[in-house]
Each structure stands twice: as C-alpha cells, then as structure tokens.
Design goal:
Rossmann fold; alpha/beta; about 400 residues; 14 helices; binds pyridoxal-5'-phosphate
C-alpha cells in the first residue's frame, strides 16, 4: 500500500497532482505544549485543488467512468458539498469536459464559490439551516436538479465507497511511506486524529491502520473530531462557523464506532480558529479552520487520561490531518481578525514612526466600512472616512 512520490518527470494533467502531500513535524507546538511524542501534520492543502477532498473527487469520478455511470459528452456531474469536494470535482470536470453543478450551503466561503465558478462549475447556494432531508438543503436541491437535468449524476460522497477507499489507498499509503522512510525511531502511527464531515477520511484511514495492525504493528488510537453543533460525536444540532466537518445526520460512509474509531472529541469555533492561527503563526503552515479543529482535538486527547501515555512517549507518532488551506477562508471575519498580541508591537511602532502613519489592517478597514454603512454614511460622501476610522 505504501507509495513512492510520483512527481518524477512530467505529469499528464493536474489530476496527477492530486494528493502526495507532506507529513510535517510540528515541533514548535509540541514543545510549547510540553509533549514528548512526535506531533506530525498531514498538510492536504498541498494537493492540486487545495484539499483532502481532491482524492475522493478523482477516485469517484474515475470509477464512475469505468463503470459506465459517467458518459463523456453526456453526463452532468451534480454534487452537494461544503465546497472542497466540489472543487476537486469541478477541476476533474474541467479537464475531462463534463458539465458540473455544485450545491453549497450559504455559510461556505466566497473563496470556494469563486474558485468553483472559475473552474466552470455552476454554483447553487442553499440555506445553511435547512435540515439534510429538506428539499431546500444542499442534498435536496441536488436531488431535484438530478431528477430534471438530462444526464444528471450525483456521485454522492456521503454514500460512495470510493470516498473512504481513496483514503485507504492513497492518504494512508503516503503516511506509512513517510514514516517508513523517516529517521523517526518508530515507523508506525501511535495515534491518528482527523475531523469528520462525510467521515470518509477518518473511516478510510482507520480501516487501513487496523489492517496494518494485522501485520503486527502496535494498536493505534484513532480519534475523530467533531464541532459542537454536529451530532456525529454526540450533542444537539446547532450552528457553527467552521466549514467541512460535522453534520445533522450520519453519512453512510462513516463507521463511527470501535474497533475503527476509539474516541470522539468535540471542539468549538473559538478553539478551532485559535488553533488554526497558531499552526500558521508557529509552524508556518497556512491551514484552514477545520485543521484548527483537528489540532485542538489532538491536544485535548493528548492531555486526557487516555492520551497521556502517548503524549509522554518520545517514540510515539501522533498524526493530525490538516484537510485544507486558509486561502479558502481569507475573507472570513474570523481570519481577518488577528488575535490580540499576534503582532510584534515594538516592530509595529517602529514602522509607524518611520512612515509617519498607521499601518493598514484589512480587518479594521472592513469593520470601519461596515460601521460607516450602518451609520448611513456612503463612501463617496466621506472619501477619507473609512481610512480615518481605521487608523
Ligand atoms: C475543510 C474540510 N475539512 C474536513 C473535511 C472532512 O472530511 P471528510 O468528509 O472526509 O470527513 C472536509 C470535507 O468536506 C472539508 O472540506
């Protein structure tokens, strides 16, 4: 199952640049948290479409072509998604010449929608609060479109076995290969932590890990992370901002119980976004919000009774999946607003002293523009108003 890096020579198309992402030490966070184990991030934003979901899009589409479900020149690919599966599919459709329609809940970022459109997909926004079985939900609208558009096909990441299989065959193989060829003392996974949306990532990885244990590897602990407001890891349905993880129903591809998944950990938006910014600031990895959820969940696990032995073992390898990158979320309020104390105040003051004015802060600018709008002031009436308030 282990793969070698395939970026030798020239690739046939962007589809050959799906996956093959690096496993990266998070030593600064590990040390700051007083952990002894190796803390390793699987950085999926390196994949060509920018996320872990490129893998399933490619596999679902290619298998559907093999099985005659998709017919070039005729089929229209329709998919309900939180965006990343859509980007992977739209990218594959652009290359292969299929029409593509993506249904996307309103809360998902503008960046995802604009990228989808630039790849040639039609995007239909749906109300975030619509229950999964409502005709207005992302799934309900996709179903209605499929029924009425000739050649319409939903590959359906929620039930398609190629979703977990993509991770079984590629994501796990890459992690195993990275560990095997590393200079780490142990070559196996001690704990694996990932968020769950459809559950394809965690289920596919967990199956591959359990199969590797049949060959004699020590048992790994598999931890799934779920946002407060989702029912997958327990609790009630509610609203949350983090994108890509959590649902109000159990997708068929998710196998939520032991022996596959040992534990579920809940995280909230504040923890997720703070951890996301920390990964960027301390490790230089520009990951997205659900990567923050995964790290926050990993740290909770490593500090728990169950996780302590792993945290204190210097040979243990703890792998955290980072599903996408922050370039998907640049316009989101939570990202524009940087944490207090995240900038070097002394350096900031020095620069201000030299250039003789305040530095532009995109969050303050946006906030000032919103305040001005709320107060009924138009930008044209007060050309300097926004800037003056921001300073
Ligand atoms: C940003 C992000 N994180 C995490 C996930 C969860 O992955 P999975 O659906 O494999 O559980 C997704 C899935 O769409 C995602 O887009």
């Amino acid at each position: 199952m282990a793969s070698t890096h395939h970026w030798n020579g020239v690739l046939d198309s962007a589809l050959d640049a799906v996956g093959e992402t690096p496993l990266i030490r998070l030593d600064r966070i590990r040390d700051a948290e007083g952990l002894k184990c190796n803390l390793l991030g699987k950085a999926e934003f390196f994949s060509v479409g920018g996320s872990v979901k490129d893998r399933i899009a490619k596999r679902m589409l290619e298998q559907a072509e093999k099985n005659g479900i998709l017919i070039p020149g005729q089929s229209v690919v329709i998919e309900p998604t939180s965006g990343n599966t859509g980007i992977g599919l739209a990218l594959a459709c652009a290359i292969k010449g299929y029409k593509c329609i993506i249904t996307l809940p309103a809360k998902m970022s503008l960046e995802k929608e604009v990228l989808l459109r630039s790849l040639g997909a039609e995007v239909v926004r749906t109300p975030t609060e619509a229950a999964h079985d409502s005709p207005d939900s992302l799934i309900g609208v996709a179903e209605r479109l499929k029924e009425q558009i000739p050649g319409g096909v939903i590959l359906d990441q929620y039930s398609n076995p190629n979703n977990p299989l993509a991770h079984y065959y590629t994501t796990y193989g890459e992690i195993a290969y990275a560990l095997k060829t590393s200079n780490l003392r142990r070559k196996s996974i001690s704990a694996l932590i990932a968020g769950a949306g459809t559950g394809g990532t965690i289920t596919g990885l967990a199956r591959a890990v359990r199969d590797s244990e049949k060959d004699g590897a020590a048992r790994a602990t598999i931890v799934a992370v779920d946002p407060v407001g989702s029912i997958l890891g327990g609790g009630d349905v509610g609203m949350y901002q983090v994108e890509g993880i959590g649902y109000d129903f159990f997708p068929a591809v998710l196998d939520p119980k032991p022996p596959l998944i040992d534990e579920w950990i809940k995280t909230n938006d504040d923890e997720a976004f703070a951890a996301c910014k920390r990964i960027i600031r301390q490790e230089g990895l520009a990951v997205g919000g659900s990567s923050g959820s995964a790290l926050a969940g990993a740290l909770k696990f490593l500090k728990s009774e169950e996780g302590k032995a792993i945290a204190e073992d210097p040979t243990a390898n703890v792998v955290v999946v980072f599903p996408d990158g922050v370039r998907n979320y640049m316009s989101k309020e939570w990202f524009l607003k940087q944490e207090e104390g995240s900038r070097d105040a002394e350096l900031h003051d020095t620069i201000r002293g030299i250039i003789g004015r305040d530095l532009d802060d995109p969050y303050l600018k946006k906030k000032a523009a919103a305040d001005a709008k709320a107060n009924g002031a138009s930008d044209s009436a007060k050309p300097n108003g926004v800037h003056a308030t921001a300073a």
